[in-house]
Amino acid sequence: MKIEKYNQKLLAVLGTVGVLFLIVALIAFISVTIIEHRRYSYDDVETGILSDEKIEELQKENKREQVISYKTPKLIDTLNSIYIVPVSHKTLNEEEDISGLLNAISVSGNFESPDTRYSSGFYGTYNNIIVYHSNDGINKKLFDKRVNFNTINTEYFDKEILLFIKASEKDTHKDGVINLKDFKSLYIYSFSQNEMKKIGIDGMDVYNYKFINNSKNLIIEFGVDKNNDGQYQEYNEPTLIKKYDFESGKLTDIINEKINSDLQKTLEGTQK
After folding, report:
1. Distance of alpha carbon 213 from alpha carbon 219, whole angstroms
2. CA–CA gap between residue 175 and residue 183 (Å, rounded)
3. Rounded to an integer, what distance in angstroms lies between the CA atom of residue 147 and that of residue 145?
4. What is the pLDDT of residue 222?
5. Bigger pLDDT: 39 vs 263
6. Which among 151, 234, 163, 231 is positioned nearest to 221, based on CA atoms?
7. Nearest CA to 127 among 176, 70, 79?
C-alpha cells in the first residue's frame, strides 16, 4: 500500500515537472518566434528609405538622416570574376549636416568564397546594387533613382545571368517612408545585355512571379489595391495574373475578359 502511494506521488511529481518543462519550452519558443518576426518585419518594412516629401524637408535645412552602407560583395559570375555589392542604408540617431564628412559609410564584410554564387538569393535591406568587375576594377550602379528592396534573386541560364529585384520607388502608402508596404515593380538586370528592364502596372503591386517552363518568360501576379490606400493587402484584396514575354517586354492577359467576367458573375450569383 505504501509502495502504491509512493508511486502515485512520484508520478504526480514527474507529471508536474513535465508540464512545467513544456510550459517553459512553449514560452521560450513563442518568445524567440516573436523576436525573429519583429526583427525580420523591421528589416523588411520599417527600415525603408525616406519619402521624397521627407527628403525635401531635410534638404531645406541642409540635413540628412540616412547614410549608405555597403554589404558583403557576392560572387555572381565565376568565369568573369563579376561581383554584386548590395547597397544598404542606416538611419542615424540624429540628423546631420549634408556638408559634413560622410564618415558613417561601412562595409560589412570581405569577399566571399566562390561557392556562394550558387545561392538563389540574397536577403537584406537595400537601395541599390553595384556590379563590380574585379579583373579590371570597373563598377557601375544599377539604379539611378531612389528605390527600396529586400531580396536579390539570381537566375542562371545558358550564357545568361539575370538578377530579379522587387523594388518600391514611391511612398504610395503615404507613411513617410518608401518600403515594402508600397507598390513594387519587378526589375530584371541582364548581365549579357548590360540592361535593366522594369515591369509594373500603375496602381498595382508586383506580388509574385514564376518562370514559364523552359523559358525566360514569366507569369506575374499583380496585387490590386481595391480600397485605394496605396498598398496591397493579401488577405482581402485580389490578384490578377499576366504573362511577361522576356524578349519583347510585353505584358498580356492569361485569363481572357469573358472568362473573368463569367467567373465573377458566378461568384456573386448574378449569372444562373
Report:
1. 10
2. 13
3. 6
4. 96
5. 263
6. 234
7. 70
Is the per-residue pLDDT at 30 higher than 60? yes
What residue type is assigned to position 163 of the chain? L
How buried is residue 197: exposed, middle or buried, by Cβ count under 10 Å (0-12/13-18/19+)? middle
Higher-confidence residue: 96 or 127? 127
* Pair 95, 65: CB distance under 8 Å: yes
Average pLDDT over residues 251-258: 93
Q: Higher model confidence: residue 26 or residue 189?
A: 189
Buried b (16+ CB within 10 A) or exposed e, 225-246: beeeebbbeeeebeebebebeb
Set of cell numbers at residue 117: 554564387
Nine-digit cell string for 185: 515593380
* Chain centroid offset of residue 85 CA: 16
Please tell me which residue, 221 or 158, carries the higher pLDDT value.
221
* Contact by Cβ (8 Å): 143, 188: no
Query: Which residues, 6+ apart, have CB-to-CB distance to 154 below 8 Å?
Result: 76, 117, 119, 120, 121, 122, 161, 162, 163, 164
Length of the chain: 272
